[in-house]
Specification:
single chain, 6 helices, 70% helix, globular
Length: 170
C-alpha cells in the first residue's frame, strides 16, 4: 500500500508515496481500535449514568482524533472523505448492528441519548472503514480500477445483507 504522507513505523521513516506492507498497518490498528472501541462501547452502554458523558467524550474523542490523524496519513483525504460519506449512508446499518450487539446484554440503543451513542458510532465507522481498506489492499484492488469496482460492489452487497439480517433479527 502507498502512504499518502510521511510516517514512521517501528522506528523506520517512510515518505509520502512509499510502499509499505499492509501487514505493518492493519493488524496493529484492528487490534488497537478493537480494544479502544470495545472500551468506548462498554462505557457508553454499560451503565446509563456512568461514566459521565464528559469523560466518555474525552476518552473516546481523543482516541478518535488520533485515529483520524493516522487515517489521513495512511489513506489520504479522499479515502477519509469516502469514509464519512459511507457512514452517513450507513447509519441504518450501524444502528442495526449496535442494536444487535446491545441485545446480547438485554439493552436497546433507544434507551440511551444520542449524545451517549456518538462515541460508539464513531468507533464503528472508523473500524468498518479500516476493514474496507484492508480488503482493498489484501485483494490488490487499490491500483486496479476494475478489481476495485468488483470488490467494492461485493463489500456493499455483503454489508447490506449483514445489516438486513441484523435488522430483521430484532
Amino acid at each position: 500500500m502507498k502512504l499518502k504522507s510521511a510516517l514512521t513505523i517501528n522506528g523506520k521513516k517512510y515518505e509520502a508515496g512509499d510502499e509499505v506492507s499492509p501487514w505493518s498497518i492493519y493488524p496493529f490498528f484492528l487490534l488497537h481500535m478493537g480494544i479502544f472501541g470495545a472500551s468506548g462501547f462498554l462505557m457508553a452502554y454499560g451503565d446509563p449514568e456512568s461514566p459521565p458523558l464528559v469523560f466518555l467524550y474525552m476518552h473516546g474523542g481523543f482516541a478518535i482524533l488520533i485515529y483520524l490523524a493516522f487515517y489521513f496519513s495512511i489513506f489520504g483525504k479522499e479515502e477519509v472523505e469516502w469514509m464519512f460519506i459511507n457512514a452517513g449512508l450507513g447509519l441504518f446499518g450501524i444502528y442495526a448492528e449496535i442494536k444487535y450487539f446491545l441485545s446480547w446484554f438485554g439493552r436497546n440503543p433507544a434507551d440511551y441519548s444520542y449524545a451517549r451513542q456518538a462515541i460508539p458510532f464513531l468507533y464503528y465507522i472508523l473500524y468498518t472503514f479500516l476493514l474496507r481498506q484492508a480488503l482493498l489492499d489484501l485483494t490488490g484492488s487499490h491500483d486496479n480500477p476494475e478489481r476495485k469496482r468488483v470488490v467494492e460492489a461485493l463489500y456493499i452487497i455483503v454489508s447490506v445483507l449483514i445489516y438486513g439480517a441484523f435488522y430483521l433479527r430484532r
